[in-house]
Amino acid sequence: MVEVIDDDFMVCTDCLMIIANDDASGLDYSLDEETEGREQEIREAIAEIQREEGQIAVGDSGRDDELSSSPCACCGTRLVGARHHFVILGCGRER
Ligand SMILES: [Zn+2]
User: Fold this and answer.
1) Separation of 73 CA from ligand 1 center, angstroms?
2) Domains in the chain: boundaries
3) Is-contact 65 8, C-beta < 8 A?
């Protein structure tokens, strides 16, 4: 039984790429070291959410926000930009 435990998990484009494609090559930073730190930060945030809450799954692209200043639900960035809709699935957890 898979249950949606968070139906409004809005993440930035950087997190989208890592969650959906496991690919950080699109992170657009001029310095390699900075990109590495950023990727690390995002991967840690994802791992923590998966440990504490559940699986992050791609949501409804119709609910994406093209321009938002809300903090990313994953890495917490407040950079204004697109936010993509994801959901958190609580998999196989007994209640
Ligand atoms: Zn993010």
Assistant:
1) 7
2) 2-91
3) no
